[in-house]
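Q: Structure tokens for this one, please.
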Amino acid sequence: MERGGMTWNYDEKITDNEAVFFRNLIDVETGDSDGFVNAWEILKMEVLLSGKMEESIEEESDVKLNSTSDSVELKNVELRISKDALGRTGKKSAITDSASATYMFREEAGPGTDIWLMGTPNSSVTITLPQGLDAELTKGLDNKSLEFKNNRTLLKGNFGSEKNITIWLSENETFKSELQSMEMNRDKNAENESEENATQAAGEKAEASQVTGFFKNILKEINRSLT
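A: Here is the predicted structure, written as tokens:
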């Protein structure tokens, strides 16, 4: 998640009878109903399901900013079906589907913003917050745990029975303190660089003066030879 948008990444594994049903669906909807799933049938199903997923999100957004989806724009949807789906439709072996939906926020997320996310009840979720922001409060995130990685707060847990999570964002005081410290060091380095540049500039002026003196001497020598 960034201040100007986010990407939802989904992973789902289906097995046993559900896997058989899905293979048959691919074969019937995008294939030739021959009891066998080919690569081109999977590609066609990916396009079909991506379109349906986009329509579903447009009808009922799974992301809201400050309690409304008006400030959230869906930019792109992609769905991928693993090669495990290849072969006989009667196979019960697992198939993994993955999808991503990218959103743009029409207003920047920051301290005081609340973000609402909809998902599948009891499914696990990891939410990476924008750099410099923390979760002041969360609702609907069961078994919550917090991590701090690469200067970002990671929220982990599960969607609750109400299938939605709300996060109230706040400023990350630790990151803010580190940022202020970095700025102070940067200012200090800038002062040192300024002193170094002044020394270098003086050296350059001295060198330029020497070059100018050199040309004067050459001109004098030329002038003498002409007189």
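A few notes: Residues 173-227 form one domain. The first strand starts at residue 5 and ends at 14.
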